[in-house]
Amino acid sequence: MVIFINVANNAILRANLEEDKDPEEYGITAVNHPLNLTKDQLSEVTVLTTSVDVVVAICVIFAMSFIPASFVLYLIQERVSNAKHLQFVSGVTPAVYWFTNFAWDIANYAISVAMVVVIFIAFEKKAYTSSTNLPALIALLFFYGWAVIPMMYPASYFFNVPSTAYVALSCMNLFIGINSSAITFILDLFENNR
């Protein structure tokens, strides 16, 4: 706004100069020193920025809650149709069975992590993609997958219908993820209000 007014005032000044005067020698210089934000304004900006970050985190929680829950679908289907039993009878050991499932699931999960990171980079979310935060984000997402995928495997024994398991485990992941994020956000607000 200040620049626009300065340019307009310079145009008016130079248009009204006498004809024997050089317009390039005359001009108005404007300097703008805005006031610092008050504590209330700064607090509002901080809460707004934090709120946007929480919404982004919840969107990531939604995406990353459905992916691990989908890994039990084939496990349930194999158990119910006795394909798992057939593999064990054919000589596959339980260790090999579970390791290959985990390796395949972590490989599929890595694709999802790569897509999440690419989206953050594309939208230039500096809170997640700065040079110090990006490696931490990638590590956090991979460690989440490393922890949550084995937690889904025992749950496959509680269900006989894969779609029911998918909905239940997705809801469980969402409940845990959103509640822990909300609690962290609320506690952070209380800490800032001291």
TrEMBL record:
Membrane topology listed for this record: Multi-pass membrane protein
UniProt entry keywords in alphabetical sequence: Membrane, Transmembrane, Transmembrane helix
TM ranges: 54-76, 106-123, 135-153, 165-190
Database matches in InterPro entries: ABC2_TM, ABCA
GO cellular component term, pick one: membrane
GO molecular function terms noted in the UniProt entry: ABC-type transporter activity; lipid transporter activity
ABC-2 type transporter transmembrane domain: residues covered: 8-187
Pfam families from the UniProt entry: ABC2_membrane_3 (PF12698)
Main location: membrane
Subcellular location: Membrane
PANTHER family given in the database record: ABC TRANSPORTER DOMAIN-CONTAINING PROTEIN-RELATED, ATP-BINDING CASSETTE TRANSPORTER SUBFAMILY A ABCA
Name listed for the protein in its UniProt record: ABC-2 type transporter transmembrane domain-containing protein
Organism encoding this protein: Aquarana catesbeiana (American bullfrog)
